[in-house]
Write a structure and sequence with these properties.
6 helices; elongated; about 25% strand; alpha+beta; about 190 residues; 3 domains; about 30% helix
Length: about 190
């Protein structure tokens, strides 16, 4: 307790009766600490609008920024798609960008290694491209046993998910189709 002495008259039931708030839904049952609190959104320097990154629905989000840091993300009531509502994943998207455990560097674990190492993005991108091109070259099928044209590789597959938006998933689908992969799955069902 913060040094103030409580009396019998401070009992919440008596406050409810005195104030006429018999159901206990108003100020009679609100503590001074609760009354002193204010939402993080009221102290934001600015509000940016965005789209939730999780699935292909495209729910609108309002991103509240203070001192160039995200302090809250809420549904955008002006969005014709979601009308201010977000699913549990969308509601928790603040954690996606503000978590202290978020990985922000490229991590690589070599075959049979027990530790991860950091790579610069250009090196990692080159490694991925080299491996994709080598696998495609090694597993390419021009025709089947009957001579029917295939133009495919069964050595590359793609698995997408709801963490990407529908534009990203669409581009991934186009990329892997262009590489000749036929095993392409995605939660967004593109």
């Amino acid at each position: 307790m913060s040094g103030t002495r409580r009396t019998f008259l401070d009992w919440p039931v008596l406050r409810q009766v005195r104030s006429g708030d018999l159901l206990g839904r108003g100020a009679a049952v609100t503590s001074a600490r609760t009354r002193a609190r204010q939402p993080r959104t009221t102290t934001a320097d600015r509000v940016a609008r965005s789209v939730c990154p999780y699935c292909a629905v495209g729910c609108g989000q309002k991103i509240f920024v203070k001192d160039e840091k995200i302090v809250q993300i809420e549904g955008d009531p002006d969005s014709p798609i979601s009308r201010g509502r977000l699913c549990p994943k969308g509601s928790a998207s603040t954690q996606l960008v503000t978590s202290p455990t978020r990985v922000t560097k490229v991590m690589y674990r070599a075959p049979h290694a027990t530790e991860w190492t950091h790579l610069d993005l250009e090196t990692a991108t080159d490694m991925i491209a080299d491996r994709i091109l080598e696998t495609r070259r090694r597993t390419w099928q021009d025709t089947d046993a009957r001579g029917l044209r295939l133009n495919r590789t069964m050595g590359i597959a793609a698995l997408g998910g709801a963490a990407l938006d529908n534009e990203e998933n669409y581009l991934i689908k186009k990329l892997f189709t262009g590489l000749g992969a036929v095993q392409i799955e995605n939660q967004a069902r593109i």
